[in-house]
Design goal:
single chain; about 120 residues; mainly alpha; 6 helices; about 65% helix; globular
Length: about 120
């Protein structure tokens, strides 16, 4: 199972590879949870880039090799997290907002804010 940001206590001092893995793992957990709990809603808000990005691959298996590629992926993952939380916030479904995985993603967003988005 992928690690989530809640499982890491390293703050913003973690290596870039670990940061990418944690963002990627957290999004995978949330998307998996939403696919099971609210598949129709997820289908309506999912971005086309999510399918190849989160199609069951583990971050370590496809980790970008250069710092520039890791930075680009990290920016994309951050944007995905912010977009998904925005869509959750716009939803009138209170159950969606209370899913534990969504709450974990919300906590991850607080860390992202500290990372100079």
């Amino acid at each position: 199972m992928a690690a989530s940001l809640d499982e890491d206590n390293g703050g913003n001092n973690r290596p870039p590879e670990r940061q990418v893995e944690l963002y990627w793992g957290t999004m995978n957990l949330v998307l998996g949870s939403l696919a099971g709990a609210r598949p129709e809603w997820l289908h309506t808000i999912a971005l086309p880039a999510w399918y190849p990005r989160y199609a069951g691959l583990q971050a370590r298996e496809t980790m970008p090799q250069t710092p520039e590629q890791r930075q680009a992926l990290t920016r994309a993952l951050r944007a995905d997290i912010l977009y998904l939380l925005n869509m959750v916030d716009q939803s009138s479904d209170a159950g969606l907002k209370s899913l534990p995985e969504v709450q974990a993603l919300r906590r991850a967003k607080e860390e992202l804010t500290c990372d100079d988005l």
